[in-house]
Write a structure and sequence with these properties.
The protein has 103 residues and is of the alpha+beta class. The chain folds into 2 domains: 61 residues, no CATH class; 32 residues, no CATH class. The protein is 28% helix and 9% strand. The chain contains 4 helices and 2 strands, in the order ββαααα. A two-stranded antiparallel ribbon has the order 1-2. The longest helix is centred in the last third of the chain and has 12 residues. The N and C termini lie far apart (54 Å).
């Protein structure tokens, strides 16, 4: 696997050694760090060796970009992510109300 491009969000666009480009971005946590023992210079025409043009790579890079970055994330609806205490945010009262309703 060859890293072709790193996106703004930190994910990677990769291709195989035969030049086929994976059209799904790969999360940075899935990439195993590799320390090269020597530098490998790629040819100037590297983009012709892979099965995607620069425009296609741009399109892959821009897929999945949120149009509404401030949208609510319902997976984290009741999770306190900002580090404030539950007493300050009022979340504790909501949790107590929910537990009373379930009982």
């Amino acid at each position: 696997t060859i890293l072709v491009r790193r996106t703004k969000g930190g994910s990677y666009i990769v291709c195989e050694l035969d030049g086929s480009v994976n059209h799904n971005k790969i999360g940075a946590f899935r990439v195993i760090p590799y320390f090269a023992r020597e530098r490998i210079d790629l040819p100037e025409h590297f983009s012709t060796l892979i099965d995607a043009s620069n425009e296609e790579l741009d399109e892959i890079e821009n897929t999945g970009v949120e149009e509404r970055p401030n949208a609510r994330d319902y997976y984290f609806e009741g999770v306190n992510l900002d580090g404030s205490s539950a007493d300050e945010s009022g979340d504790l009262e909501e949790i107590e109300d929910l537990s009373e309703e379930e009982a």
